[in-house]
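Problem 3 from the worked examples.
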Amino acid sequence: MAEIKPFRALRFTDKAGNIASLTCPPYDIISEEQRQKFLAENPYNIIRLELPKGEDPYTQAGKTLESWLDEEILKCDRDPAIYIYEEEFTAYGKTSKVKGIICRVKLEEFSKGIVLPHEETLSKAKEDRFNLMKATSCNFSQIYSLYMDEKHETAARIDALSSGAPRYEFSDGEVIHRLWIVNDPVAIAAICEDFQDRKLYIADGHHRYETALNYRNWRREQGDTSEDPAYVMMMLVDMQSDGLVVFPTHRLVRNLDHYDESAVLDACRKDFEVYPMQDYREIPANLDALYRQGKKAFALYSGGDGWTLLILKDLGVMAELLPDKSAASQGLDVTVLHTLVLERAFGIDKENMANQKNLTYTRSFEEAIESVQSGESQCAFLLNPTRVTEIRDVAAAGEKMPQKSTYFYPKLITGLVMNQTKSGRNSRSAPSGR
């Protein structure tokens, strides 16, 4: 099953500055304005490597990495280690913590059923990450994956190993980040053995995992038989962790030649109970109540103060329309919405969705409402979050959800540890001293 191992992480040294000024969120949620702010605070921020800019950004990222290694801005740890990472945050009015381990994981094709995806990917994003990996031979951010551990044995080990003061602890304004370094061979061996009978379920980072597979194959084509490209850096978290939070990803419809809300609602009445509602500010509370009841429900907002509540009458219609899909896939909120509303009522097919021609996404309720009110979008569908158990069941069935079905919060921060995928002089660097 899953093969994990420790690694000598590449980390920032004291010469680079305070660790809080060197890290950043994942590249794909950072605006250019935010990017500039990170660099203004510290020119060594990891964003220069993770999201390079310019006429030849990938080559520039490679040169920047070489320069930082030469200047000892970055160094590899002396001993192989597993890194315990914890995030403390507030979501849905509650303070939570999620803790896991960052390690190397052996790359496996999805067909082997060892590492399982749950979401479709976009080719443009994979091309971007592949070009960056070819230029830098490094994972700057970790893939987020989940595992099943009914007895919570690994969680107990992790808690014991992180009982002391962390190596890093800082806040980015929303999340408190902590990192412990575990280089005791006995402790590492016990954790690695825990995963011998486990599968891994990708929570976030599908593009990066598929890119790592492509990069490994490319390196083999170049005649490289070393083991480094056969592993990728991952954060592994217990699927039953109380701290796991998934936000919904709302759908924004735009640029349709003709948008007729009445016609859409008429088309929906066959499969949904349709209720006109008065105040869009009450959408979250209404959806949450139905979520707790296990109902399949959505909010349609087309502007003004009012909105429309759609509640599925009978889930059996999904088995009729998608007989080749598992019950897990048939029962997903996003599958119901896409199949019965976006495809049937709007005529937005899967290719259109993949190209984001008439459909875009946001996790922010406020942004969805504002997009419609400003006229940028014609309407918005507000959804409930996907349950973690649903993600597991779809992946276990060997199927994938539509793109942008899940948003795990908070995102893992980039820049605490990095994984070099090519041996050489740089991998023999001295410890960073932090």
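Problem 4, a separate protein:
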Amino acid sequence: MKTICIMNLKGGVGKTVTADNVAAILAADHGKRVLLIDADHQGNTSRFFLLEEMIVSTLRDILAGDSEPYWPENVYSTGHVGLEIIPADMALAELDTAPERDPRAVWRLRSFLEAVAEDDAYDYTIIDMPPAFSLAARAALAAADEVIVPIKLDAFSVYGMAELLRQVRAMNRVNPNLTLAGVLVTMWHNADIVTQAERVLRSGSFPVFKTVIRRTDRVDESTFQRQPLVVYSPRSAACVDYRAMVREYLERGADCGQEV
């Protein structure tokens, strides 16, 4: 089982959309068994796939040590074949404000996923990360194999890459196997500033996916309909692009990430 964090410390870059659609495409197009984890206390991925009244146990319970060792109680069906989810809600943020920090919390997701891997229930775990270096983020990076960084081509996002990579690099001390699978350009449109920023990004020392995700209103529509693009609008530009990005990722094969 490979675990991939979809991460950017800046909001509004298509992080959740990327996590949700990559997970859905891996399941729908490639027959992969996918576990999607919402590690963002805002819970957007959870609300996308689940009704609020369905949620009893969340990622917070795993990190707090309230759910071990029986892991299936934390996993919910999304209604899409091959795709299941561990949700999150605002209770996840309480772990960052607790008066006494539990030093074991950052390791619990790793232990949880190791138990999942032994059960051979999934091929991929996709983690929708928060736009902050929270306890949940550190726990996810401690458990992950790779990081994919969605980026919207503006100056703040491009310049913020250095800080993001610095934070991820710090996690190599506890997870030396963590690599950068690549940076993914999202919300691409044909404008001079976008093409200029893309050239700057691709001239850097880190890997960038050849595929870019084009901007389209279908993405926002799909969030209201609570359906991944492969279901809601399979012919839309963004869905075509996300499918191409997943194919690009899979065709590169294993061990293709770059040290951060």
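Solution to problem 4. The CA atoms of residues 56 and 74 lie 8 Å apart. The chain has a mean pLDDT of 89.
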